[in-house]
Amino acid sequence: MESPQVHGRGTSDNPRNRFLPIAVVRDTWDDPSDPQPHTQFLTDATRSIISWNDSPDLGFNASLNPYRGCEHGCVYCYARPNHEFLGFSAGLDFETRILVKQRAPDLLRRALASRRWEPQVVMMSGVTDAYQPVERRLGITRRCLEVLAEFRNPVAIVTKNHLVTRDADLLGEMASYGAARVTVSITTLDDRLHRLMEPRTSAPRRRLRAIESLAAAGVPVGVNVAPVIPGLTDHEMPQILAAAASAGATTAAYIPLRLPLVVADLFESWLESHFPLRKDKVLNKIRETRGGRLNDPRLGFRMKGTGPVASQISQLFRISCRRTGLSRKLPPLSSAAF
Asked: Can you give the pTM of this predicted structure?
């Protein structure tokens, strides 16, 4: 499955779609006359914009994702298999075939204006990042936030992109009546590892600046150390939490790495390409947190893992949070001003 690395992408692999009987297989990207894959933006003609779930370990019921697929290209992304439902591959297609929901702001306005709508938190970036690079040009997330601010409906955002600071004005306004919160995910502070693993996300220092800027605008900001990769990034947790606290984060969370379906093969190929000597150690430690497998999809276990390695990560997180003042819980977002 391993293939030459495509510059600026999390993976060069484009594995077969599990739902399709045929696939296009490319032998190599190392021919200088062969153009590198460019991102294609396709129209998503969805007629609804709010997605619903009843999972007890997510913490939200309603979510909004302006884009399907993600140009950030994080090799470990748990959302990659969702692209197979669209007829694409979970590999390179996930990073280069992005479906854009151009009508998202209008659909959101219609949903919030409905008599059936019960004011509640809407999670943005529940699947893919609402602030991936194309958002700078299209501004769909910004226009959705304008609708949420108009209705004063609470919103929670998770992102890896400094671009979220562009919307500090709207988020600060909503935070003034307890209706906005942002979580910035930080996986590593190592610039080289970041470039290899999350090639089109904001650099770690830029994410810390995003925390600082949002906190200065009065927006409650948390840090999510996610994913924690045992044997590769777990040792960084105390430094990440300390840096985030210094930047203005007031709460923290973490999620151990999980590798559903084809993501396990993509991540294993990535380790072979970039960290061959550490590959077995990392994979074995992941298995120790997932009951001997690379993924444990059971509710109540998938977000924290099990076993001694998972317990060590949990203990390190708790101790680090106490030391940095990130142990407190923020009050729930309010829909009182809706």
From this structure: 0.92
What values do phi and psi take at 119, rounded to 5?
Answer: -55, 125
User: Could you tell me if 259 and 295 are in contact, meaning their C-beta atoms sit under 8 angstroms apart?
Assistant: yes
d(CA 300, CA 306) in angstroms, rounded, equals 10
Q: Take residue 273 and report the two structure tokens written for it.
A: 């390409």
Tokens representing 156 are 């929670």
pLDDT in tens, 140-163: 999 999 999 999 999 999 999 999
Structure tokens at 66: 């302006």
Q: Token pair for residue 121?
A: 């938190």
d(CA 246, CA 231): 26
> Which residue stretches of the chain have pLDDT < 50?
1-3, 29
Q: What is the β-pairing status of strands 155-159 and 251-256?
A: unpaired
The per-residue pLDDT for range 254-266, each reduced to its tens digit, is 999 999 999 999 9
How far apart (Å, rounded) are the C-alpha atoms in residues 190 and 194?
A: 6
Cβ contact 250:219 at 8 Å: no
d(CA 57, CA 252): 16
